[in-house]
Amino acid sequence: MDITKNAMLLALLLAAPLAHAEDGDAHEVTVKVADLPAPVTSAVRAKWAGATISEAEKQADGSFELDVASKDGQKLEVVVKADGTIVKSGKDDDEGEHEGKDDDDAGHEDDD
User: Fold this and answer.
1) Rounded distance between C-alpha atoms, residue 112 and residue 103, angstroms
2) Which domains are assigned to the chain?
3) Which residues lie below 8 Å from residue 111, measured CB to CB, with a gap of 6+?
4) Closest by CA position to 68, among listed 85, 47, 95
5) How far is CA 101 from the centre of its chain?
6) Nearest of 100, 57, 60 to residue 77 by alpha carbon
7) Rounded distance, CA 29 to CA 62, Å?
8) How far apart are CA 37 and CA 84, in angstroms?
9) pTM
10) pLDDT tens digits, 57-106
11) 15 vs 7: CA distance, rounded Å
12) Across 51-98, where does the E strand assignment appear?
């Protein structure tokens, strides 16, 4: 192998772990809660006073998927844009499926 091929192989080997999140989803990267943008944490605090963010992942579109525990202990999954816009929120059932509302649904009650 020549030097160029070795360099490309080394670059691929070093970059591979960075391309995958902890759960194997290449579209999400784990982020430290302390490193979240201020508008993201402010939006969560404003909507759920006393809530705690336990985990955060940055999605491919730049938004953040957060695991949040409300002060009454309810587990939520919340998606927030970097500018603090809450896109989606719902109950976190801990199995990857989340009941939630898109931001467009917020404030609208079903007539069932």
Assistant:
1) 20
2) 21-97 (3.10.450.360)
3) none
4) 47
5) 15
6) 100
7) 10
8) 8
9) 0.62
10) 999 999 999 999 999 989 999 999 999 999 988 887 654 444 444 444 44
11) 12
12) 52-59, 64-69, 75-80, 86-91
